[in-house]
Amino acid sequence: MITRRNFVIGSGVSLVLTACGGQGSGSGGGGKTLKIAVVPKGTTHEFWKAVHAGAVKASKELGVEIVWKGPLKEDDLKQQIEVVQSFVAQGVSGIVLAPLNDKGLVPAVNEAKQANIPVVIFDSDLQGDAYTSFVATDNVAAGKLAGERMGKLLGGKGKVMVLRYQEGSASTQLREKGFLEAVKGMSEIQVVSDNQYGGATTESAFAASENLLVSLKAAEGGVNGIFCPNESTTFGMLLALEKSGLAGKVKFVGFDASDKLVDGLNAGKIDGLVLQNPFRMGELAVQTMTKHLKGEKVDKRIDTGARVVDKESMNDPEVKALLKPDLTKWLGQ
What we know:
The structure is a single chain. This protein has helices spanning 46-62, 77-90, 106-114, 139-154, 170-184, 202-215, 231-244, 259-266, 278-293, 317-323, 328-331, and strands at 15-18, 35-39, 65-68, 94-97, 119-122, 133-136, 157-164, 188-197, 225-227, 251-255, 272-275, 301-303, 307-309. The chain is α/β, with parallel strands linked by helices. It has a 7-stranded mixed β-sheet with strand order 1-3-2-4-5-6-12, with helices on both faces. Strands 8-7-9-10-11-13 form a 6-stranded mixed β-sheet, with helices on both faces. Strand 10 (251-255), helix 8 and strand 11 form a beta-alpha-beta unit. Helix 6 packs across helix 7 (231-244). The N and C termini lie close together (12 Å).
């Protein structure tokens, strides 16, 4: 079950996990245990905790060592670059990276390549081709799922707004693109706002949401449907809808899951959540890097899938595993 625990890892702390597999099971050609750095966009959102757990599972099963380290917040590009550069200087076997910015991490990844340290990108794409593989949700397709869900909720007509995440985040930009492509194909749906950003935190998303709801006169029917492309924007918008008395009145489709978002779904305040599989994403990213380091062929792009869930489907066993994965087994405490 996803809970907020005391294992949040700040920018200055790293966690090393060595698997207990058979001797040499995670070794490279020289018999040395492979050491893989895993660098998320941030370490506080529930999504990254699930990624972390999946990476730990893979490390234990494959007998490799992982080091989990990333910025505390998802807007600290400078810190993430420094983390990657530090791992390059340490000479790790490989780096698994979720880039905060599709351009900003390019020089650091190029440095890794020049140092013969392969990089697997996950969650959010990176410009260029200096990386070995990309493990992620097909974000355009996932955004289209959200748009199709919104169309059904509104009966194909109404006023819709998008609260974007932040500029430079490739994954959320593609979700926003997919959503807008889907709803703009519906002639009686009007997009009344799609150029405002929530930022990297729940607090900034809440402030942006409040401003949008007021400026668009949502309480007077100026907005019928809302889409948010990640966990923090979804939660910030949920808080703003609750404060304004609009929760459950305006159709609302969000992205990703946390305990509070699941509660919102169950209470009818959220009409749909697009779920990725962050646990599987972390697991596959480490598996892919390990295969590459052992000389095995890996695909350039690996889709980890997505689906829309609502109140009616949330008790399906497969959906429950996505909504509340068992992180305690892999992260402890």
